[in-house]
Amino acid sequence: MFDTAFLDIPALRAVSGSVRLPGSKSISNRVLLLAALCGGQTTVLDLLDSDDTRVMLQALRQLGCGVTVEGSTAIIDGLGGRALQPQAELFLGNAGTAMRPLTAALAVLGGDYRLSGIPRMHERPIGDLVDALRALGCSVRYLGQDGYPPLHIGQPHLQLDRPIPVRGNVSSQFLTALLMALPLAASEQDVVIEVVGELISKPYIEITLQLLARFGVSVQRDGWARFVIPAGSRYHSPGQIHVEADASSASYFIAAGALSASGNGQSGLKIEGVGEASIQGDIRFVDAARLMGAQVESGPNWLRVTRGAWPLKAVDLDCNHIPDAAMTLAVMALYADGPTTLRNIASWRVKETDRIAAMATELRKLGATVQEGADEIRIAPPKDARAWRAASLHTYDDHRMAMCGSLAAFNPAGLPVRIEDPKCVAKTFPDYFETLFALAEPAAPVPVICIDGPTASGKGTLASEVARRLGYHYLDSGSLYRLTGLAARRAGLALENPDEARLSALARQLPVGFAGGHILLGQEDVGEAIRTEAAGMDASRVSALPGVRQALLELQRSCARLPGLVADGRDMGTVIFPHALLKVYLTAGSAQRAERRHKQLISKGIPAKLDGLRADLEARDARDQNRVASPLEPAQDALLLDNTHLTIEDSVDQVLRWWQERQPFRPS
Ligand SMILES: O=C(O)C1=C[C@@H](OP(=O)(O)O)[C@@H](O)[C@H](O)C1
Ligand SMILES: C=C(OP(=O)(O)O)C(=O)O
């Protein structure tokens, strides 16, 4: 997950390859609650791991359920037959699929519970569900504003002899919540639910009914108006249940496939884990994407997408049945041949944010002309490539605003897009951006920042912090020869009389990684191992081999991957990345550098003398600067940063300021 203030996505050209997406949020949270409500043990496979499922799992633990999670498998020991924890304070984040169904289940079971969430959850309506529960004889009290969480739940006096009315025009989750809770009360008599007025987001009710059936409860229904839970209904664990990949999450990749430039014999993007046999309503997004021109082939649990019509075709659609995935259509509309209208989406206004207002504001920043209606949005795309704007997109703590925003990176103007607060995707898809970057091809070389400078100038500390702040990869080029030597020793290759071809092959494939101050060879942290005297000797042996130098040049260039790279060393800006967008040459006075090195050594328990260190540094500077082959010198277009009197934070801020000056957008 990108835990940065913002994430700049360079312009993208295409996506290809194949991807397995994380589990469906709607299925995961329903299955977890149903498994908790029935007796016995349920093994849930391919469970989604995200904020929404974590709050549900935590709530179930607090209620006394046995919960074991290992990787993507959860084992739930249901409460059926066991005492429910009679009192609990449950924090449910911003998960509608946890707040609404848990409210109903706990209200029917009774106890002393407080349910709350993040501030936005306290602005998301729940009044229609509370009215229905009160009509049923449940005790539910508002602890803040009437009609909204937080809530207190007490002991019920259930009255099941008349139909329970529920309104479904604000959220279908209220009906879902009742359908999941009432089998707990239907042992003696039929329980009837009647929907008052219109019901929105109907396919989510289908998911609920399908999963109830998997847990042994078959609901009888009369269209969308009346649902009967037959007397004697009881939950039975299916033993094991598998969660499909999330169809709403798939919408971003279906869109990316439809926006991808074709060519290079590409056969499109394959999405695995969800397909035409899905029980999720958002799989119908595929029909909408096809209407806009996407080419989508499908099997029971896979999809393959390629670009079809180009530009995409504008559409005018009722999107009530796909409220979440419809947001993706709003961004696809930027690439259409005319204005697109998405209708019947009033529920967008009461989700993670007011999504109609948010979408209108952000798409306008990109150059679109957008009209907002009470329950619709009309998007006219930028009139040509020159009308696109590079924008810093605000994401309103809404995962879908962030994921949708990334699709603007396919713009024909080759502009980057900035996503503010990218970690908000954690609600349903924590690794969304990593997944996108693994499939995407940039439209131009990815951005590189080079930080070169003499020994002990602090370039490693500076470069790795700049990388962390931008969410970029980090390359510590100086360690590569040491790593090659170490890998060679471990592979049993002789270094005294070396086989250049084999060593070069090894260097080309070196599995290096730099993360959080650690230097990795494969999965192993070798930070200490490469700093020994012997490793230094080996480094100097391998670095004398031209084949190895060439291999490492390629390896270094291959580190320039999405979304960008910060590379530190001595020849990053001059030799390895001559076209880098920002080159910094970092220096500090020799007295200062000697002092830093001295502190470093002493803190590691290595004895050292300040005077000696300074003399060594100065001698090494002179050698490095005066050698004939690639002497240490600033690239012609490098900016000089003397950090003798700067803190690390000052230097980081300076480099980030220079970087920002080179960006086409300003923060919003
Ligand atoms: O039941 C569900 O799993 C959901 C129902 C939909 O909400 P509404 O019924 O409020 O539209 C959808 O937007 C939400 O992401 C998940
Ligand atoms: C509306 C959404 O979430 P929730 O389940 O919290 O309603 C969503 O995921 O888009």
UniProtKB/TrEMBL annotation:
Keyword DNA damage in annotation: no
GO BP term (any one): aromatic amino acid family biosynthetic process
PROSITE patterns given in the database record: EPSP_SYNTHASE_1, EPSP_SYNTHASE_2
Catalytic activity: CMP + ATP = CDP + ADP; 3-phosphoshikimate + phosphoenolpyruvate = 5-O-(1-carboxyvinyl)-3-phosphoshikimate + phosphate; dCMP + ATP = dCDP + ADP
Primary residence: cytoplasm
UniProt pathway: Metabolic intermediate biosynthesis; chorismate biosynthesis; chorismate from D-erythrose 4-phosphate and phosphoenolpyruvate: step 6/7
Ranges that cross the membrane: none
Function, as annotated: Catalyzes the transfer of the enolpyruvyl moiety of phosphoenolpyruvate (PEP) to the 5-hydroxyl of shikimate-3-phosphate (S3P) to produce enolpyruvyl shikimate-3-phosphate and inorganic phosphate.
Quaternary structure (record): Monomer.
Listed name of the protein: Multifunctional fusion protein
Organism: Ottowia testudinis
